[in-house]
Q: What sequence folds into this?
């Protein structure tokens, strides 16, 4: 891939000057996070980690990622309405993975009672890396789709200005003018506002379901403030608040201390640690309600790694989206090799292949949030240990994507300024709203580029590994 900053990246004096400008610009622009020491208050904040330089992204792949986003929105929405598919696909997983099993139990319980919810809102982010082929050409390969709590749509809208300024300081005024504007938070808020409107109660509020510890609050505030600007009231509550204050009326309208809730936007609830017994009860209450959940539990299940793996099986997309061959071709072109580790011959064969050649693969459990996948020698050891046990079924295998690294500086508070070999991951935000059977909104809402040093196989921004970036199209 092109390395557009080759001439400045090794110029120590220029880099130091630009980094000082970059950090102050980030603080001024609101690229902010609470600190690890004071994660519960905004008295002391710092900049969210970001790259000094925007990273090169091939224009054609960037456009390809945008062009396929509406297809993925349709697909996720279709999966969420297909009980038979979810049941069959997750049958083996829920036998061994307690977290997925508990989500699935709530899903079945809600279906049995009959859905009260009639308006559906999906906010997802489809993530990709640029796989470098033997001939040096890069291909867009999907890492995963996040169907719950996809973050950084707020902070990422502020990095282009910061990087534009950095490029100017480095004498690259022309290049600075080519950075694209990007505001996912606005698009996400548009979807939430549409769902709120269709819910149809002026008095009702939007509830952000937030974490106990809210370090990334500024990212959420970007979406929140867009809603206030539309005169939509927003409240922020945790699962335990829902347990204590939440109730349903006879038509299953959701109330928090007497205040009706139109939309529940989850920024929490995607890992087992988010739940104790009370929180599971709160989740069930929310799912049973008429309120628009973003996502509803079916859509959360649609985002599991197991579902992703099944989608890559020949014929699956055709069954889920009949009559849409073009959309299917666009999506399939982004799939990397994905393999089931279910018990049986197919699983035995791929497990043996991965044990023999672990560097070709990534081993993934049904978890979100970064830091859970296994690579290389660790992959080999774990797979060796579980290859003959049902536990194997809780994982999937995926071909490892191998992007071409580029030099950059990762700016982090209290860290030395040093050059790193880096790789990037591009995310496209998708938003859709469905009323009954009618899709009333289906859009790509913006992008997120995250970059990390190649030493780290795994991990996102919140996990402290990747940092925010801006694409520079080449
Ligand atoms: P999570 O739900 O934890 O975010 P991901 O599937 O996104 O799980 O994986 C986490 C990180 O691991 C990604 O951001 C990426 O850096 C790395 N990763 C995941 N899958 C692959 C792959 N197939 N090839 C190379 N790196 C991968
Ligand atoms: Mg991820």
A:
């Amino acid at each position: 891939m092109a390395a557009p900053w080759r001439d400045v990246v090794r110029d120590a004096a220029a880099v130091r000057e630009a980094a000082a400008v970059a950090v102050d610009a980030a603080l001024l622009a609101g690229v902010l996070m609470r600190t690890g020491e004071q994660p519960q208050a905004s008295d002391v904040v710092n900049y969210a980690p970001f790259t000094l330089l925007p990273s090169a992204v091939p224009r054609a792949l960037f456009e390809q990622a945008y062009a396929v986003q509406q297809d993925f929105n349709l697909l996720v929405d279709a999966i969420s309405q297909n009980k038979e598919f979810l049941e069959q696909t997750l049958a083996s997983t829920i036998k061994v993975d307690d977290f997925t099993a508990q989500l699935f139990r709530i899903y079945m319980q809600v279906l049995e009672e009959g859905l009260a919810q009639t308006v559906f809102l999906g906010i997802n982010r489809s993530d990709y890396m640029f796989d470098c082929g033997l001939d040096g050409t890069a291909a867009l390969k999907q890492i995963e789709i996040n169907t719950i709590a996809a973050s950084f749509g707020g902070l990422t809208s502020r990095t282009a200005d910061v990087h534009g300024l950095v490029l100017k300081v480095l004498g690259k005024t022309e290049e600075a003018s080519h950075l694209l504007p990007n505001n996912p938070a606005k698009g996400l808020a548009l979807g939430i506002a549409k769902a709120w409107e269709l819910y149809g109660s002026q008095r009702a509020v939007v509830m952000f379901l937030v974490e106990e510890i809210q370090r990334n609050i500024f990212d959420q505030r970007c979406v929140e403030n867009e809603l206030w600007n539309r005169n939509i009231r927003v409240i922020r509550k945790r699962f335990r608040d829902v347990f204590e204050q939440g109730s349903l009326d006879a038509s299953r309208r959701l109330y928090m201390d007497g205040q009706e809730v139109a939309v529940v936007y989850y920024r929490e609830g995607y890992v087992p640690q988010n739940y104790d017994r009370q929180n599971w009860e709160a989740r069930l209450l929310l799912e049973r309600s008429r309120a628009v959940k973003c996502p509803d539990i079916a859509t959360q299940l649609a985002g599991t790694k197991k579902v992703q793996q099944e989608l890559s099986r020949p014929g699956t997309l055709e069954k889920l989206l009949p009559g849409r061959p073009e959309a299917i071709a666009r999506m399939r072109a982004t799939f990397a090799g994905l393999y089931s580790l279910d018990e049986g011959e197919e699983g035995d064969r791929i497990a043996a292949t991965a044990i023999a050649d672990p560097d070709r693969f990534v081993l993934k459990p049904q978890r979100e949030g970064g830091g859970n996948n296994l690579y290389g020698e660790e992959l080999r050891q774990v797979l060796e240990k579980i290859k003959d046990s049902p536990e194997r079924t809780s994982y999937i295998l995926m071909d490892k994507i191998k992007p071409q690294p580029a030099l950059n500086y990762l700016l982090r508070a209290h860290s030395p300024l040093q050059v790193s070999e880096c790789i990037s991951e591009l995310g496209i935000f998708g938003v859709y709203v469905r009323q009954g059977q009618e899709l009333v909104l289906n859009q790509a809402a913006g992008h997120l580029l995250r970059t990390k040093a190649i030493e780290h196989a795994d991990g996102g921004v919140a996990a402290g590994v990747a940092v925010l970036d801006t694409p520079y199209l080449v």
User: Anything to note?
Assistant: The two ends are 9 Å apart (CA to CA).
